[in-house]
């Protein structure tokens, strides 16, 4: 049966069909829905740009909390996680194989823990009563008298979200960078030293990074996407949507809030479209930045 | 010539100069690894140790009570635990298999076959690397409702098996395989599909393993499918059941032990699979670059 299957259609049709059904079409529908009022029961009613206008001018929660939170979260967790991935990969590349494997598994393991697991571990650690591990430690050392409500307090929630996200940020991009460093042609370094390269920093900037630029770009995209995907973490940690005083409210939570709690699907779609556009533009900017630096 | 440190990449054995890396890496690995060790210990703690003050990190007298409670609670709610487990395993096994098959087929097509729109298709796929499913959950639901996937096993499987990242990685991997092998097989009269099955599949085993791991993580951990795309309880999967415990245990006393046991069950298959296949993953990642 397989001896006549030559057409490319045999190969690409299944993937393309699924890819379009579950990725492309939903994106298109999201764009269309964002121009409508849709409460899931009545047929969508076209209202033009009103959702977007409302989002920008009327939605105080969005402007005051959600957008700044998202930007702050993305701009700290993204770059820090990315630089950390590179540095760790670089260090790992310089230790023997067996130790490297063990470290790589440990560092990658958090990115495998599902949302529930993350929420369980970290809520227990940061729990607001004296059985919370961090509170118990602080009280034992006499640093605080009363347990701190880490997860319910707007002062701490964001910081904790960032720590937890960074903890889990050594994902596929990190593995790609590690592989990238290990596969650099060693004679490049030799040649560079003959040509007068002086130190490790020059080594990193003139040889290591340029030689693994493709992996660096892949890592960057994964890092941007990863940052936005872990977005639901504030709700998992605090156990409520919206998060206490919107302290950990990110765009993903805002979408869920309007889409699945208030059933304003058109509005939620508009937020989704803004989110997709944001991710896309940040990825593009990252691309150009990294591309230029290494040219 | 100053000291040449390039050769220190990928060293064969330990050298004193590596000490500084270990000094940084060991504490960091401990920080990263502790929560994982914590999940494992917490899952086996008896109630009095779960709420001991000051809290203890390591378990003293391990018990499997938490797992037993988890199973009991499920049957109380009407659906036996085994049903969730069966659903999870079924969905994951079928999903991973289909994902590997569909992804490698398409990757071969995009890498080695000639057809119209090939470049465009790969461009769109690369663009889709930036896709965050959570952003379009609602339209996805509408699409699925329209083609009648709601409340079926397909609803749990199909949305998760076309993974742009996986497809990207396999395609980059196949790009590295020499065309001569394919050419000579063609001269011997093999069809493209035969070449794919008999020659390419064995060569791309590492990339296949990587897609397997990625899709396993995605499907095994997926909660969205069970909470949105199926309504009947008997079709829902483990992570969904576990997430309901998390909701019940809004006050930490109610189900901390059970939740720890649940996290343990979710986490262990992931890590075991990764440990077995990590060398294959690294091999694939070497070709992961975006050019």
From TrEMBL, chain A:
Record's subcellular location: Cell membrane
Domain ABC transmembrane type-1, residue spans: 67-286
Primary localisation category: membrane
Entry's Gene Ontology cellular component terms: plasma membrane
Signal peptide: none
Family annotation (Pfam families): BPD_transp_1
Superkingdom classification of source: Bacteria
Topology term for the membrane: Multi-pass membrane protein
Sorted UniProt keywords: Cell membrane, Membrane, Transmembrane, Transmembrane helix, Transport
Any one GO biological process: transmembrane transport
Residues passing through the membrane, by range: 12-35, 73-93, 105-125, 156-182, 217-240, 260-280
Assigned protein family: Belongs to the binding-protein-dependent transport system permease family.
Annotated protein name in UniProt: Sugar ABC transporter permease
UniProt source species: Hujiaoplasma nucleasis
Automatic annotation (TrEMBL), chain B:
Single biological process term from Gene Ontology: transmembrane transport
ABC transmembrane type-1 domain segment(s): 85-277
Predominant location category: membrane
InterPro entries per UniProt: MetI-like (IPR000515), MetI-like_sf (IPR035906)
Cited Pfam families: BPD_transp_1
Topology class, membrane: Multi-pass membrane protein
Compartments it resides in: Cell membrane
Alphabetically ordered keywords of this record: Cell membrane, Membrane, Transmembrane, Transmembrane helix, Transport
TM stretches of this protein: 21-44, 84-108, 120-141, 153-174, 195-220, 258-277
GO cellular component, one term: plasma membrane
Family: Belongs to the binding-protein-dependent transport system permease family.
Protein name: Carbohydrate ABC transporter permease
Species of provenance: Hujiaoplasma nucleasis
Taxonomic classification: Bacteria, Bacillati, Mycoplasmatota, Mollicutes, Candidatus Izemoplasmatales
């Amino acid at each position: 049966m397989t001896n006549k299957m030559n057409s490319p259609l045999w190969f690409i049709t299944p993937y393309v069909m699924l890819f379009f059904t579950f990725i492309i079409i939903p994106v298109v529908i999201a764009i269309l829905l964002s121009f409508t009022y849709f409460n899931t029961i009545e047929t969508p009613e076209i209202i033009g740009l009103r959702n977007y206008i409302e989002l920008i001018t009327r939605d105080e929660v969005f402007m005051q909390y959600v957008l700044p939170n998202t930007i702050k979260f993305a701009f700290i967790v993204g770059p820090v996680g990315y630089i950390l991935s590179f540095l760790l990969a670089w260090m790992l590349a310089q230790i023997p194989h067996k130790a490297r494997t063990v470290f790589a598994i440990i560092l990658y393991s958090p990115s495998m823990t599902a949302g529930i697991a993350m929420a369980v571990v970290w809520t227990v650690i940061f729990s607001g009563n004296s059985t919370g591990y961090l509170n118990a430690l602080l009280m034992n050392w006499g640093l605080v008298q009363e347990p701190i409500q880490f997860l319910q307090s707007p002062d701490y929630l964001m910081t904790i979200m960032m720590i937890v996200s960074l903890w889990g940020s050594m994902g596929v991009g990190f593995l790609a960078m590690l592989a990238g460093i290990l596969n650099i042609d060693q004679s490049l370094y030799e040649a560079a030293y003959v040509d007068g390269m002086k130190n490790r920093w020059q080594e990193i900037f003139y040889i290591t990074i340029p030689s693994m630029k493709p992996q660096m770009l892949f890592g960057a995209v994964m890092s941007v996407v990863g940052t936005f995907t872990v977005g639901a973490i504030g709700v998992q940690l605090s156990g409520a949507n919206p998060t206490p005083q919107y302290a950990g409210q990110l765009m993903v939570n805002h979408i869920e809030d309007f889409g699945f709690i208030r059933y304003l699907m058109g509005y939620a779609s508009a937020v989704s479209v803004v989110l997709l556009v944001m991710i896309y533009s940040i990825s593009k900017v990252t691309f150009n930045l990294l591309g230029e630096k290494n040219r | 010539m100053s000291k040449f440190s390039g050769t220190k990449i990928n060293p064969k054995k330990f050298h004193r100069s590596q000490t500084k890396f270990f000094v940084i890496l060991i504490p960091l690995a401990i920080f990263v690894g502790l929560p994982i060790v914590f999940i494992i210990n917490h899952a086996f703690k008896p109630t009095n140790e779960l709420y001991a003050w000051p809290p203890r990190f390591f378990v003293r007298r391990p018990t499997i009570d938490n797992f037993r409670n988890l199973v009991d609670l499920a049957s109380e709610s009407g659906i036996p635990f085994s049903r969730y487990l069966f659903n999870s395993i079924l969905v994951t096994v079928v999903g991973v298999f289909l994902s590997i098959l569909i992804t490698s087929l398409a990757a071969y097509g995009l890498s080695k076959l000639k057809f119209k729109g090939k470049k465009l298709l790969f461009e769109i796929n690369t663009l889709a690397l930036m896709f965050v499913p959570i952003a379009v959950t609602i339209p996805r639901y509408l699409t699925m409702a329209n083609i009648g996937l709601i409340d079926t096993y397909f609803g749990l499987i199909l949305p998760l098996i076309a993974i742009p990242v996986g497809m990207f990685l396999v395609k980059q991997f196949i790009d590295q395989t020499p065309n001569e092998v394919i050419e000579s097989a063609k001269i011997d009269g093999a069809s493209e599909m035969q070449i794919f099955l008999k020659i390419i599949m064995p060569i791309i085993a590492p990339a296949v393993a990587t897609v397997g791991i990625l899709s396993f993580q995605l499907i095994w951990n997926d909660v969205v499918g069970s909470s949105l795309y199926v309504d009947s309880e008997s079709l829902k999967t483990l992570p969904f059941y576990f997430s309901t415990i998390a909701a019940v245990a809004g006050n930490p006393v109610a189900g901390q032990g059970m939740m720890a046991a649940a996290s343990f069950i979710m986490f262990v298959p992931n890590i075991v699979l990764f440990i077995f296949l990590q060398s294959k993953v690294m091999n694939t990642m070497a070709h992961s670059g975006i050019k």
